Amino acid sequence: MSILLVVACALVDADRRVLIAQRPEGKSLAGLWEFPGGKIEPGESPEAALIRELNEELGVSTQTACLAPLTFASHSYESFHLLMPLYVCRKWQGTPQPREHAALKWVRPTALRDYPMPPADEPLIAPLCDLL
Protein backbone atom coordinates (compact mmCIF):
# COMPACT_ATOMS: atom_id res chain seq x y z
CA MET A 1 0.00 0.00 0.00
CA SER A 2 1.41 3.36 -0.99
CA ILE A 3 1.71 6.24 1.46
CA LEU A 4 0.22 9.56 0.40
CA LEU A 5 1.69 12.57 2.18
CA VAL A 6 -0.65 15.55 2.38
CA VAL A 7 -0.74 18.62 4.60
CA ALA A 8 -3.66 20.42 6.25
CA CYS A 9 -4.17 23.74 8.00
CA ALA A 10 -6.49 25.06 10.68
CA LEU A 11 -6.83 28.75 9.92
CA VAL A 12 -7.88 30.35 13.23
CA ASP A 13 -9.48 33.79 13.25
CA ALA A 14 -9.48 36.42 16.02
CA ASP A 15 -12.66 34.88 17.49
CA ARG A 16 -10.92 31.47 17.78
CA ARG A 17 -13.04 29.99 15.01
CA VAL A 18 -11.58 27.48 12.54
CA LEU A 19 -12.08 27.55 8.77
CA ILE A 20 -13.38 24.36 7.19
CA ALA A 21 -13.99 23.74 3.49
CA GLN A 22 -16.59 21.54 1.81
CA ARG A 23 -15.31 19.11 -0.82
CA PRO A 24 -16.91 19.81 -4.22
CA GLU A 25 -19.03 17.48 -6.33
CA GLY A 26 -16.97 15.25 -8.60
CA LYS A 27 -14.17 14.70 -6.06
CA SER A 28 -13.87 11.72 -3.77
CA LEU A 29 -15.63 12.30 -0.44
CA ALA A 30 -17.71 15.08 -2.07
CA GLY A 31 -19.84 17.07 0.36
CA LEU A 32 -17.68 16.32 3.39
CA TRP A 33 -15.99 19.15 5.29
CA GLU A 34 -12.20 19.24 5.67
CA PHE A 35 -9.29 21.36 6.78
CA PRO A 36 -7.78 23.14 3.73
CA GLY A 37 -4.55 21.75 2.33
CA GLY A 38 -3.37 19.21 -0.19
CA LYS A 39 -0.66 16.99 -1.59
CA ILE A 40 3.01 17.65 -0.99
CA GLU A 41 4.84 17.71 -4.33
CA PRO A 42 8.22 15.96 -4.77
CA GLY A 43 11.02 18.09 -3.30
CA GLU A 44 8.54 20.33 -1.47
CA SER A 45 8.53 20.82 2.31
CA PRO A 46 5.20 20.46 4.15
CA GLU A 47 5.26 24.18 4.94
CA ALA A 48 5.94 25.18 1.32
CA ALA A 49 3.15 22.86 0.16
CA LEU A 50 0.73 24.39 2.64
CA ILE A 51 1.61 27.96 1.63
CA ARG A 52 1.06 26.98 -2.03
CA GLU A 53 -2.21 25.12 -1.31
CA LEU A 54 -3.68 27.94 0.80
CA ASN A 55 -2.98 30.35 -2.05
CA GLU A 56 -4.44 28.02 -4.72
CA GLU A 57 -7.50 26.88 -2.72
CA LEU A 58 -8.38 29.99 -0.73
CA GLY A 59 -6.51 32.92 -2.27
CA VAL A 60 -4.68 33.73 0.97
CA SER A 61 -0.96 34.05 1.58
CA THR A 62 1.07 33.29 4.67
CA GLN A 63 4.66 32.53 5.67
CA THR A 64 6.43 29.55 7.19
CA ALA A 65 6.88 31.45 10.48
CA CYS A 66 3.07 31.68 10.78
CA LEU A 67 2.57 27.91 10.54
CA ALA A 68 2.72 25.96 13.80
CA PRO A 69 2.60 22.14 13.59
CA LEU A 70 -0.02 20.75 15.99
CA THR A 71 -0.65 17.06 15.32
CA PHE A 72 -1.02 14.56 12.48
CA ALA A 73 -3.42 11.96 11.16
CA SER A 74 -2.50 8.50 9.92
CA HIS A 75 -5.36 6.73 8.17
CA SER A 76 -5.69 3.75 5.82
CA TYR A 77 -8.08 4.15 2.93
CA GLU A 78 -8.86 1.28 0.58
CA SER A 79 -6.03 1.87 -1.89
CA PHE A 80 -3.52 4.04 0.01
CA HIS A 81 -2.41 5.15 3.47
CA LEU A 82 -2.73 8.86 4.21
CA LEU A 83 -0.26 10.69 6.45
CA MET A 84 -1.37 14.26 7.16
CA PRO A 85 0.29 16.80 9.48
CA LEU A 86 -2.02 19.57 10.71
CA TYR A 87 -0.66 23.09 11.11
CA VAL A 88 -2.33 25.99 12.87
CA CYS A 89 -2.18 29.41 11.22
CA ARG A 90 -3.40 32.59 12.92
CA LYS A 91 -1.86 35.14 10.55
CA TRP A 92 -2.43 35.41 6.81
CA GLN A 93 -3.13 38.02 4.15
CA GLY A 94 -6.35 38.09 2.13
CA THR A 95 -9.90 36.91 2.67
CA PRO A 96 -10.44 33.16 2.19
CA GLN A 97 -12.51 32.40 -0.93
CA PRO A 98 -13.79 28.96 -2.02
CA ARG A 99 -11.71 28.66 -5.20
CA GLU A 100 -11.68 24.83 -5.21
CA HIS A 101 -14.37 24.01 -2.63
CA ALA A 102 -18.17 24.08 -2.68
CA ALA A 103 -18.28 26.28 0.44
CA LEU A 104 -16.26 27.63 3.38
CA LYS A 105 -17.42 28.02 6.96
CA TRP A 106 -15.94 29.50 10.15
CA VAL A 107 -16.74 27.12 13.02
CA ARG A 108 -16.09 27.04 16.76
CA PRO A 109 -13.76 24.11 17.56
CA THR A 110 -16.39 22.48 19.78
CA ALA A 111 -18.82 22.47 16.82
CA LEU A 112 -16.44 20.77 14.35
CA ARG A 113 -17.99 17.36 15.06
CA ASP A 114 -21.33 18.71 13.79
CA TYR A 115 -19.91 18.67 10.24
CA PRO A 116 -19.30 15.34 8.47
CA MET A 117 -15.58 15.02 7.73
CA PRO A 118 -13.36 12.49 5.97
CA PRO A 119 -12.12 9.77 8.37
CA ALA A 120 -8.57 11.16 8.27
CA ASP A 121 -9.68 14.62 9.44
CA GLU A 122 -11.75 13.45 12.43
CA PRO A 123 -8.80 12.64 14.78
CA LEU A 124 -7.46 16.17 14.25
CA ILE A 125 -10.44 17.74 16.03
CA ALA A 126 -9.58 16.80 19.64
CA PRO A 127 -6.04 18.32 19.66
CA LEU A 128 -7.45 21.45 18.02
CA CYS A 129 -10.16 21.75 20.69
CA ASP A 130 -7.52 21.29 23.39
CA LEU A 131 -5.42 24.09 21.87
CA LEU A 132 -8.26 26.57 21.40
Provide a descriptive summary of the structure in words:
The chain is an alpha+beta fold and 132 residues long. It has a single domain, classed as Nucleoside Triphosphate Pyrophosphohydrolase (Alpha-Beta Complex), CATH 3.90.79.10. 15% of the residues lie in helices and 34% in strands. It has helices at 46-58, 125-131; strands at residues 2-11, 18-22, 33-34, 37-39, 67-76, 80-89, 103-107. The strands form two sheets. It has a four-stranded mixed sheet, with helices on one face. It is globular. The mean pLDDT is 96.
Layout of helices and strands:
Layout: E1 2-11, E2 18-22, E3 33-34, E4 37-39, H1 46-58, E5 67-76, E6 80-89, E7 103-107, H2 125-131
Parallel strand pairs: 1-6
Antiparallel strand pairs: 1-4, 2-3, 2-7, 5-6
Task: Provide a short characterization of the protein structure.
It contains two helices and seven strands; from the N terminus they run ββββαβββα. The protein has helices spanning 46-58, 125-131, and strands at residues 2-11, 18-22, 33-34, 37-39, 67-76, 80-89, 103-107.
